[in-house]
Model the fold of this input.
Amino acid sequence: MRRAFEDVSDLTVGAEEELLLLDPFTLEPAPASEWILAEIGESWAHPELWSAQIELVSGAGASPADAVGDLRAARTRLVDVLAGRLRIAGLGTHPLALPADDFHPGERYEAIVEHHRLGARLGALASGLHVHVGVAGPDRALAVYNAMRGYAPLFTALAANAPFVGGRDSGLATVRPMLADALPHQGVGPPLASWAALEELLEWGRRTGAIPDPAQLWWECRLNVRHGTIELRAPDTQGSLEDTLGLVALTRALVADLCERLDGGERLPAPDTMRIQENRWRAMRFGMEAELVDLDGGRPVPAREAVARVLERVARHAAPAALDRVRLRAARDEPQEQRELARTAGPAAIAARAADTTEAAAGMTPAPAGYVRIHG
Done:
């Protein structure tokens, strides 16, 4: 596990986004990943548990713009393959779906469904943006992981865009973390005092069958021992790639700042898991309207103020335009915008807007007006 962090280039960045596949007329989920991936036959598109999802992946780039440029190209190629037969959308979950009924074939996915039953049918609905940042040096990576855990709820709040599920308003800014929690090993990972502690956890998992594969530690911030990266998994998938760029740039900037502080002799914090969990709940419930608990001082801080503090601290580590996109996103209340849209046009219109945003970001022409079927 340590070796991956000895070989990786420092602060390289990559991203993965789980996109929804939609019927072009009803905007309902379309379980079609098997034939799409057969047509694509390329490494930039991967299956997910739910066959109405597909994952697009970037390479390891030198900058956030490199990673998001790869995703933009992948979206464009995917839309070209779909040729109007299906549409794609970037949301934390489909506003009409609950639970998932169709799964991508394969031994790995069949085992998850068989073992977890309803948990698999709920957890499969979650669509996330995963950001990888390379950290050279295993001990550096461990320290940065411990500290970065505390920032994950801030990304949950920033990226929240999934208040509806099963055609109903969940009352949350994003229901995706709650859906993900239907599967084990989600949420906030523990602080790790040493690599031996992680090795002991994984050995216990192998011995008991609880964690047969390290990749099944689906924490919202984790050490990715395959790629040698800090992997942030907290954000909902975004429709707009400009919003994605802001989230990717902020992730890399935070990791760069933590590395710089550590290299300068500072001892990085390893926040208490329960306190991070409290912020995670506040973020999923209220999004950018939340008051998050300052993990250092212990007092509530408005989420927008917390974002502003982080942006000021890491500004030198990111392109100003990318961080400006974070500011714009933080100023909005995306879940409330979706609620207003659903009141006038039904929850299906949320998927329609996300589909149009996704394809416009890929350089495609949005669908004509009037193609959305309104759900009461």
User: Anything to note?
Assistant: The mean pLDDT is 93. The CA atoms of residues 144 and 258 lie 6 Å apart.
